[in-house]
Automatic annotation (TrEMBL), chains A, B:
One of its GO terms (molecular function) is prenyltransferase activity. The keyword Ribonucleoprotein does not apply. Pfam families: polyprenyl_synt. The lineage of its organism: Bacteria, Pseudomonadati, Bacteroidota, Cytophagia, Cytophagales. This is Polyprenyl synthetase family protein. Keywords: Magnesium, Metal-binding, Transferase. One of its GO terms (biological process) is isoprenoid biosynthetic process. InterPro entries: Isoprenoid_synthase_dom_sf, Polyprenyl_synt, Polyprenyl_synt_CS. Its cofactor is Mg(2+). Belongs to the FPP/GGPP synthase family.
Length: 322, 322
C-alpha cells in the first residue's frame, strides 16, 4: 500500500497548480517541490488515515498541505542558513535570490492553507488549530536552532526540546491529521501525535548519528559534515558534557580551530566520541524514543492487520541508513 | 461609532498574545503591531459588518487577523526593500536582523490564520478561501512591484494592476470579510469587495499624488521622496508616456543622474509634471476609482442611516492629506 500512496502523492504533487503570474513567485514552488525527497510526512498522514478509513485517496490534498508546508520551511531555512544546496541542487535563494525565496515561501505557506481547505468542513477548525500550533512550533524550533549556534553550551534537554519543535512535532501532526481526517476518536489522534513526536525525535537523533557513523556509500551527504561545521548535535553536546582532561582540551581546540584539514578534524573528534562511548549513549536515547513511538502504535485500538503497513513503514524509517 | 471601533481594536491589539518563547521570534510581532498606523483595514471590516449586524464586537478577532496579515507583509516587504524605517521607527530587520524578520513574519502569518479561526465554523471555509486568494495576490503585487524597478518602462494598465494586487485587494477583502462575518448575501459581499478594491486603488493614487503635491507640514513623510528614488508611480509612468522633446530629455537625464541635489531634482521633475498636467490626469484617474467605490456603496441594499458611518469614514479617506 505504501508504494501506491507514494506514487499517488508524487503524481498529485507533479500536477499541482500553485499560480502563474508573475513566474518568479510561483516557479520556485514547483522547483523545490520537484526536488523530491521521501514524501515522508504525507505518506504518514495517509497511512495513519488508512488505520480508520480504507479510502485514503480522499485525503491526498490535505496530506500534501503538510508536504508543501515542510518545503516552505526548507525554502526559508535555506535563506537563514545561507545554504547553497538542497538535495544536491541549488537552493531557491541561490538559483533566484533572497527576495524571491522570501516571497515564494510566503505564498507557499498560503498554498498549504489552501490545500487544507480540502478538509471536510466539520473537521476544518480542528485541523487548522492543530496545523497552526505545529507551524508556530516549527518556527520556534528554527529560531532556537539559530540561537544555539551562538551559545557556548546547550544542555541535552534544551537540544531535545529544540529538535522536537523543529522536526518532530510536524511528524506528530502528520500522523494526527490522518486520524482527524478519518474521523478517529480524540484518544486515538492524541496517541498518533505522541507517536509521531517520539519517532520524529528518534529520527533526528539517527540523523545526528549517521552524520558521524553512517556508511559514506549509502549516506548521500558528506560523512562528518556536522563535525566540520561544529554543529551542536546530540553527539557533540554529550561529548562536551562528558569530556574531561585531555579529551576536553583536544575537543575544545578542534571547536576553536579556524584552519584545519577536514579529514583530520573528523577523525580526531570521532576518536574522542569513541573514547566517550557517545555512539552507544546516543543509540540508547534514540531507541528510547523509537520504543515510545512503537508503544503508542501498540496501544492504538486498531487491528494488527490494519496497523501492518504503518508499522512496516516506521520500521524502515528506524532502520534507514541514509 | 468609528472612534469606538478604533479604540476597541487598539485595546484588543495591545492585549494580543502571540507566543512567548523564544523571545526573538515573538517580540518583533508585538513591536511592529505597536507602531500604530490607522488600523484602516480592521476598521473597514467592522464598519462593513455593522451594515448587516449591530453587534460588530463579535467580529473583532477576525478583523484583527487582517491587520496582523497586513503587518506581516510590511515586515517582509521591509526586508526586501532594505527599508531602515517604518512609521519613523527602526524596521524589524534593522532592529534585530534579517533572519529574525523572516521567521517572525512567518509566525505572524500563522497568527493571522489563528485569529481567523474565530470566524463561525459555517463561515470559515468561505472566509479562508477569500483570505488565501487575497494573500496570494498581495504577494503577486509585491513581486510585480520589485520587477517593475528593473524595467525601463511600465504601462499605466500594468501599474494599476500591480497596485490593485499589492494594496487594493486587501481593502476589498477587509470590506468583504465584514459582510461575510455578518451573514450578508453574496451579491452584497461582492459589492463590498468591488468597493474596497476601487477605493484602495484610488487610495494608492492619492499616495502617489501626496508624495509630490502634499503639504509638507501635514504629509509626515518627505515630499518628493518618490521622485528622488525614481519610484515608478502613476505620475512618473504618465510623464514618461507623455513627455516629448525637451521635457523627455530632461526627465530621462534626471532619472539617469547618479549625483544630484535632492531639492533640485524634485523641483525640476515636478516642473515637468506640471507642464504635462500630470496632477490633474492623476486626479481624474483617482476620482474615477473613488466614484466607482462610492457607486458600489450607493448600490448596497442597506438603509442610508446604516451606511452613514462607513460613508463618513470613506469620505475622510478620500480627502485625507497624509
Amino acid at each position: 500500500m505504501t508504494q501506491i500512496i507514494l506514487d499517488t502523492l508524487n503524481q498529485e504533487i507533479s500536477q499541482l497548480q500553485y499560480g502563474q503570474y508573475p513566474p518568479e513567485l510561483y516557479e520556485p514552488i514547483g522547483y523545490i517541490m520537484s526536488l523530491g525527497g521521501k514524501r515522508l510526512r504525507p505518506v504518514l498522514t495517509l497511512l495513519s488515515s488508512s488505520l480508520f478509513d480504507d479510502n485514503w485517496q480522499q485525503f491526498v490534498k490535505p496530506a500534501i498541505a503538510i508536504e508543501v508546508f515542510h518545503n516552505f520551511t526548507l525554502m526559508h531555512d535555506d535563506i537563514m542558513d545561507a545554504a547553497p544546496l538542497r538535495r544536491g541542487k541549488p537552493t531557491v535563494h541561490h538559483k533566484w535570490n533572497n527576495n524571491v525565496a522570501i516571497l515564494s515561501g510566503d505564498v507557499m505557506l498560503v498554498c498549504a492553507y489552501e490545500l487544507l481547505l480540502h478538509v471536510k468542513p466539520e473537521k476544518l477548525p480542528l485541523a487548522l488549530k492543530k496545523f497552526n500550533r505545529c507551524a508556530a512550533q516549527v518556527c520556534e524550533g528554527q529560531q532556537l536552532d539559530m540561537n544555539f549556534e551562538q551559545l557556548p553550551t546547550v544542555s541535552e534537554d534544551e537540544y531535545i526540546n529544540m529538535i522536537q519543535l523543529k522536526t518532530a512535532v510536524l511528524l506528530g501532526l502528520s500522523l494526527e491529521l490522518g486520524g482527524i481526517l478519518a474521523n478517529a476518536p480524540l484518544q486515538q489522534t492524541d496517541l498518533l501525535y505522541q507517536m509521531g513526536v517520539a519517532i520524529g525525535t528518534g529520527f533526528q537523533l539517527k540523523d545526528d548519528l549517521l552524520d558521524v557513523y553512517g556508511d559514506q556509500a549509502k549516506f548521500g551527504k558528506q560523512v562528518g559534515g556536522d563535525i566540520i561545521a561544529n554543529k551542536k548535535t546530540f553527539l557533540l553536546i554529550k561529548a562536551l558534557e562528558l569530556a574531561e582532561g585531555n579529551s576536553k582540551v583536544t575537543l575544545q581546540s578542534w571547536l576553536n580551530a579556524t584552519s584545519f584539514k577536514a579529514e583530520e578534524k573528523v577523525k580526531e573528534v570521532t576518536d574522542i566520541y569513541n573514547t566517550l562511548h557517545i555512539r552507544s549513549l546516543t543509540e540508547v536515547k534514540m531507541n528510547e524514543f523509537f520504543a515510545e513511538g512503537l508503544h503508542c502504535l501498540d496501544l492504538l485500538a486498531v487491528s494488527e492487520e490494519r496497523k501492518q503497513p504503518l508499522r512496516d513503514f516506521i520500521e524502515r524509517l528506524i532502520h534507514r541508513e541514509n
